């Protein structure tokens, strides 16, 4: 039940006040200990469906993987029953929220998000997002902005769990983004990582172009390290990276069924701003 989110004890809430209280408990569990929850939560129920859920996460701080109490975020029991439901309108704002020290500004809205209420043999209640499909696509838009000098911190904070699953610890990640046109980007990274007893710096560069049909083409991809052991490890990666050189990746077709990307815009000033629209 790794993709399930714990929402207290069964049964499911039957009033907006109950749902808001449970979501607030979840928000508190996702923040470091001692952080006062200032998030604004507004919800409305219509039977099993959630008519709307509005979250203002301004000043929310996402706890690191080390600080997160997984037992308070994920159910521990096995599912024994489920009930289909729909979140008709989700609005999330943050001006800003904190991810690994980065100030991330977020404004997003989704509609018709399918999910399930799950009850476990421990008497827990969880929610699990269902996969959208062609008959029930997601609709909405999102805008995310991060100060350019803090982009590496934000990416590292979001990727931390996946990296740890692969036995990789990254203690530093700097990402440089330069705009070379309305849909042309030059990317650079400088990372300090460790895998087992081996550690060192890794540098990388690439160019990315986004066409008007939601295709991304990567070019001039390079990875290197001054540490010969790290460089040798990268040799195993370079073959896969080389296959991406000049290849057009169709974002629209690569996404899961039911998620149709209509437009992506990237703006680089003092901030890196990404806007996306789903239809």
From TrEMBL:
Full protein name? DUF2993 domain-containing protein
Organism the protein comes from: Agrococcus carbonis
């Amino acid at each position: 039940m790794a993709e399930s989110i714990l929402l207290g004890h069964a049964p499911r809430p039957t009033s907006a006040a109950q749902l808001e209280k449970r979501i607030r408990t979840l928000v508190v569990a996702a923040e470091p200990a001692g952080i006062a929850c200032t998030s604004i939560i507004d919800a409305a129920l219509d039977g099993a469906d959630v008519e709307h859920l509005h979250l203002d996460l301004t000043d929310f701080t996402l706890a690191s993987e080390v600080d997160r109490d997984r037992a308070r975020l994920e159910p521990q029991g096995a599912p024994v029953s489920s009930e289909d439901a729909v979140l008709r309108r989700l609005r999330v704002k943050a001006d800003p929220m904190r991810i690994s020290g980065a100030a991330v500004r977020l404004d997003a809205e989704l509609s018709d998000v399918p999910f399930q209420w799950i009850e476990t043999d421990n008497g827990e209640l969880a929610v699990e997002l269902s996969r959208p499909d062609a008959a029930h696509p997601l609709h909405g838009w999102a805008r995310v902005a991060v100060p350019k000098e803090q982009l590496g911190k934000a990416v590292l904070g979001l990727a931390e769990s996946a990296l740890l699953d692969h036995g990789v610890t990254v203690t530093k990640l700097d990402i440089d983004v330069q705009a070379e046109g309305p849909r042309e980007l030059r990317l650079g990274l400088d990372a300090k990582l460790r895998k087992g007893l081996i550690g060192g710096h890794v540098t990388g560069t690439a160019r990315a172009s986004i066409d008007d049909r939601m295709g991304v083409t990567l070019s001039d991809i390079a990875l290197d390290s001054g540490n010969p052991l790290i460089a040798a490890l990268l040799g195993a990666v370079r073959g896969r990276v080389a296959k991406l050189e000049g290849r057009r990746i169709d974002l629209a077709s690569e996404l899961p069924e039911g998620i149709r990307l209509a437009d992506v815009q990237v703006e680089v000033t003092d901030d890196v701003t990404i806007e996306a629209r789903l239809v």
